[in-house]
Amino acid sequence: MTDPVSPVTKRPPVVGWTTFGHPGAIRLLSKSYETGRLAHAYLITGPDKVGKRTLALDIAGMVNSEPVVDMFGEAPNIDLASSHHAERIRKGIHSDVEVIDPDTELETDNRRTNLNDDGTARERQTISILHVQQMIRHSATKAFEGSRKVFIFDGAHQMVEAASNAFLKTLEEPSEDVMIVLTAPSADLLPETVVSRCQLIQLRPVDTVVIEQELVQRLGVDEPLASSLSRLARGCPGWAIDAFNDPTIVDGHNQAVLRFAGIITGNIEERFRYARQTGGQFWRDRETVLAEMQRWLEWWRDVAMMRHKLVDYVTNTEWKDLLSEIAGQLKEAQISGAITSIQEAQSALEANALPQLTLEVLMLDLPWVDPAKVPSLTIE
Length: 380
Fold this sequence. Notes:
Blueprint: E1 14-15, H1 23-34, E2 41-45, H2 52-64, E3 78-79, H3 84-91, E4 97-100, H4 129-139, E5 149-154, H5 161-172, E6 178-184, H6 192-195, E7 199-202, H7 208-219, H8 223-232, H9 237-245, H10 248-264, H11 268-282, H12 286-307, H13 320-327, H14 332-350, H15 355-365
Parallel strand pairs: 1-3, 2-6, 2-7, 4-5, 5-6
């Protein structure tokens, strides 16, 4: 089903997108909106922080905003940068737009609360059938504040099977005044029956230069800092923006660089301690542990670059001496083997394998480097 407005009705163009670095997606959506051919459901895929949620919110703003008539009685465009509806949607206070993820509060939840070791309530790791049933109830009412209800499932791959089955019925019989937007790292993580009923929008990593320019122009970031953040972002604008607003993110990144170097040069007891602590964290904060695995991959990529003297391709240029010292002690086969082991551990964790055992195996697989030959690890 396409947009309920007749394709004959030409709408004004959409400008002022918060999303940047994805011109193809913006052109597609703008053209579909102008011609009245929007789909009833979209699936936006791409890496974490690449802009999936931002684009979903822009879509919600687009379908709920009206053109502003100028002094000549004309409506030249719909400006998402100044739209009252788009602003309220971005703030999360628009009554017709709901963002649903595992942390979304449920109106009715009779499940037993699972506790962490310290007695605190364990955060939800999945989107349950209760979330979908709640969405179905809310979708039965007419839009109150805007013109169309929009439900954004941020992290749709976290739906349990029962939720996906219940959700499928909504996709099969869509309401004309309801739009659904899903986000996920990859379409492969969702049931084919769900994917086939959505229009797919794939977001790719954004060029470093584009991120740097946007940081300077939109946020007023100093050029040296913008250059550093855009490089560390690895194509994900959301990471760079978050890091600018919260300097502890970069601190955490630097700590990870040193932590990994310490593990590679550490003894077996230190490695198993890391596996135990990180594995214990998995059930409390699954996404943080999976992000740790991604950091490991990026760290080893930099080691591989330094092994081949490709300094210009290193992300963590501030640590090039440390990375060079480690790379100089390893063979290419050891580096590629480490990357393979981390990828296998990451896949196992995503499949909910026993985290501590998975990480212990990984620690045994990683190569060892003599700390005496890594002077950059010595603190003056």
